[in-house]
Each structure stands twice: as structure tokens, then as C-alpha cells.
Specification:
Strand order of the largest sheet: 3-2-4-1-5
Distance between the termini: 54 Å
Structural class: alpha/beta
Shape: elongated
CATH topology of the largest domain: Cobalt-precorrin-4 Transmethylase, domain 1
Bound molecules: S-adenosylmethionine
Radius of gyration: 19 Å
Amino acid sequence: MDGRQGTFWGLGLGPGDPELVTLKARRLIQEADCIVVPKSSIAGESLALEIARPFVGDKPVLQFEFPMRRNERELAPYWAAAAAEIADRVGRGERVVFLTLGDCLTYSTYCYVLQELRKTLPESVIHSVPGVTSFAAAAAATSFSLGEKDERIAVVPVPRGDLGPVRRALEEYDTVVLMKVAKQLPAVVRLLQEMGLDGQAVFASHVSQDGEFITRDLASLLDNERGYLSVILVRRRGGDGR
Ligand SMILES: C[S@@+](CC[C@H](N)C(=O)[O-])C[C@H]1O[C@@H](n2cnc3c(N)ncnc32)[C@H](O)[C@@H]1O
């Protein structure tokens, strides 16, 4: 690499539509020597790579598997392996980009890889480019006003077990964005019905991707499996924008 300084960029590529990839992320992909993508053992082909495909050309793509486990201790070796390979390439002068779905610093594996990279690479070669989050895209797709005036917005990942944290957020905040709904979808719908908020919510899955599905009829979701890759936006007050 002619003694060139290597660089590392984490790129948020938005929720799916290639037109929602920023010009900066697109340019960095086109200029990169190597593309790194997280690959979920369950989701199969990386969605982030699918979004970037039109810009990747024949560049080398390194896919790192990050199993769908919650235990940090079990996952740490996978993050460390990815970070070691990236640090090695950057050390050899390569421009490496790491692709993520949505925004790279919002509930992304990238955050963990970043922590590992900071142990070996200087801050000056590590950079991030923000992306359109899934919930910003869901709000845009439904013209759903997330916040007005002094309203408070909470972003809450739905826990696997007790929905207490979701209930408390719904009691306390004006707008609640529920992410990682997954198998808890029927339980979340029942909670919203119980709290009288189901009429003020919108469900959006696979936003800006093939198979996008959006509905305000939450009762229709009680017995189906649409929770994967979905968000629910809930607004306590009407809001001028709705
Ligand atoms: C690991 S987090 C990634 C979040 C992502 N970095 C972002 O900025 O939105 C995965 C969760 O994001 C949400 N998500 C990501 N992409 C989505 C999409 N296209 N449509 C709906 N929800 C999406 C879902 O709640 C999913 O469970």
C-alpha cells in the first residue's frame, strides 16, 4: 500500500432502500480496499451487504459471523476476531469499511467491534458515518410525527421476558419507539390494548425493503409472526403531525 495510512470506517447504510445510503457512505464503499460485514447465523446473507451491493463491485468482502446470543462473554471472541483482522489490514495501509443496517451506533454489533478496535488502533484512523435509523424510516413511511415542541421520545428495545420496562416507558414518555419486537409482538399488542394505546400506534416491518409491511390495525397482529425486523411507534397525544 506504498506506506499509505490505513483507515477504518463504520458505515450506517440505512434501513434498506439504497437511495437512503448517504453519499459519503457510498463514496467510502467505492474507495475501500476491503468490505467487512456482520453476518447473523440466523438471518443468513447480510442485509447490510445487500444494500451496499450496487457499490461494492468486485472488492473483497469479509463476512464475520456473530451468533444470535445475548451472553457477552460468549460473543466477545467473535468481536475480537473481527477486530483483529480489521486492525491487521488497517495496519497494512488498507481502507476498511464495516457495513451496518440503519445507523451504525444504534443497537449495532459495530459498537462492540469498535470497543475492541480502540485497544489496538489509534483514534485518528477510526471513523463512523451515521445512517438513517429504522425508526426514522418507519416514521417517514407513515408520516408519524415522533416529537413536537417539548415532547419526550423514548427508544426502547422490547425485552424477552417481563414487559415492565415497556409499560413504564409508555406511561412516562410522549412518544415511544419499540425496537426488537420479534416474538413479543402479540404480548406488546395486548399491552397496548390494555393501556388504550393501540389506536395511537403504528407497526412497521422490513421498512424500505422488499416485503415492507405497515399497519395501524394492531389487533390484526395478535396471532401472527411479523415481529422480525419490525418497530412499533406509539404516541400518547395526538400531535399536530398526525
Ligand atoms: C440490531 S438492531 C439494528 C438497529 C439499526 N442499527 C437502526 O439504526 O435502526 C435490529 C432492530 O432494528 C429494527 N430494524 C432494523 N431495520 C429495520 C427495518 N428495515 N424495518 C423495521 N425495523 C428495522 C428492528 O427493531 C430490529 O429488531
